[in-house]
Amino acid sequence: MNRSVPPPTITAVLPLAAATPAVTSVSPTSGSTAGGTQVTVTGTGFTGATGVRFGATQASFTVNSDTQITATAPAGSGTVQVTVTTPAGTSNQFVTFAYVTAPVPVLSSVSPTSGPASGGTVVTLSGSGFSGATVVRFGGVSAAFTVVSGSQITATAPAGSGTVQVTVTTPGGTSNGVSFTYVSAPVPVLSSVSPSSGPASGGTVVTLSGSGFSGATVVRFGGVSAAFTVVSGSQITATAPPGSGTVQVTVTTPGGTSNGVSFTYVSAPVPALTSVTPNSGPAAGGTTVTLTGTGLAATTAVRFGATPATSFTVVSDTHVTAVAPAGTGTVQITVTTPGGTSNGLSYTYSGAPTLSGVSPNQGSTSGGNTVTLTGTNLTGATSVLFGATPATSFTVVSPTQITAVAPAATAGPVDVTVVTPGGTSTLPKAYFYVSPPVLLGVAPLSGPLAGGNTVTLTGTHLIEATAVRFGATAATSFTVVSDTQITAVVPAGAAGPVQVTVTTVGGTSNPVSYTYLAAPIVTTVVPNQGPASGGSTVTLTGSNFAQTTTVLFGAVPTGFTVVSDTHLVADVPAGVAGPVAITVTSPGGTSAPTTYTRVAPPGI
Fold this sequence. Notes:
This protein is an all-beta fold.
């Protein structure tokens, strides 16, 4: 029986149409009218997106996945719809973005500026316009953050690498970037804190021991930052802030934050010291001292400066004995208990002093000059002696330096001595007392206004001369010939007398007078002619004649009489007939020539 078999049915498989994109949210939902806000668009069907619009304005964008796009908001105003366009169409969900006129945030600094690649560093961002912040990014990665104020944000750095830009986004826009560097430093390890307790008021100096402390940026007692000093890569000293209960002490470096070690705030009374006996001892240490005070029963440490005592014994709540470690100078002894650290009492290491230098090493017999003494172990000096005479005053500048004011003494060398609790040191004949100079005379007593002439000064104690002055003007140059004589080149000066002085290490001499003289000036010669045979006299009228030393007719000197500073009578020597120049010379110089004419006798 034949049966007809119907032909097979062929069903065509058609490609499914791509879904129209859908926008479900944008973040942030607002930004500056100037544009530039980085906006995350979330939804579906974003693969192959060809456009993202804020209202009618196209935005630049990056398709991160089928469900996420990051877009940079263009400039705009008001509230606009954000749409995504793909080959399948344009989204039509009414998801909006509001343009606001809030100021664009400004980021001025981040602290710290680096942290471990694993993230977790708490970073303080400083700047302005942070109110309403919606995003903090380290590079392109969002960070958890808290807006402290309009000028400060704290953010926890996410994991990252290299140097990235930190930015803040608010409704006003996205700030400038400030660099933050991810480093590969090791995470610090905290092994102990000592002491492990202190008063609730804070102030306990705590030593943190461990590793990886180099570059530490923060030490926290619980959540409170403490003042601290990095001593080395394995030690930090920190001052506990106020607190209560038991908290975890941590160290943060660019490598991260350490494990926590417990520190307990207690309500025990702070210890108080009233006396230390004895209050000094040798630099080598070993002296047993008795500390008296209150609240000492639970003493955990005794320190001489920053150095722990070699050992200590708690005798009672009011007495502790301690063995001084080696040290120098004057240090503060303190006692630490769970209640805190006591006030300090002075203890002096009295090593024997040594003097090595005195500068300057000479001065006036009248004293009064300041001398610098150098050496070692000078702290606590009780006396400075020049010979047997105490210094007028002295100041201990440091363990290696004292400044002292020299007392008066007689001329000659003296020993310099320093006395301290540790002993006495003397430098033999280390300072020389110099007698002040004495001037007896100057020759010549006068000279020209232009200076340049050489004078000889005589006196005593001139050998150490450091300056010769004519009034307030230093000599052009001078030469110490001996302890009793100096030659000096006179500087220019004004007409009249000045006081000449000599200065040495011993002081400044008494003055002697020197007079600056103007050169003679001849205005008339009467008569102005006479016989060639000479034998007559002429009267010269002019000025500055009082100190005249020479009158010349040509090159021939002649006799003269000074009548006054303005008149001079001179003998006319014989000479050949004709004109001859008359000049007058004094210590002030030589006058300009004036003509006198010799007349020949009449011929026969």
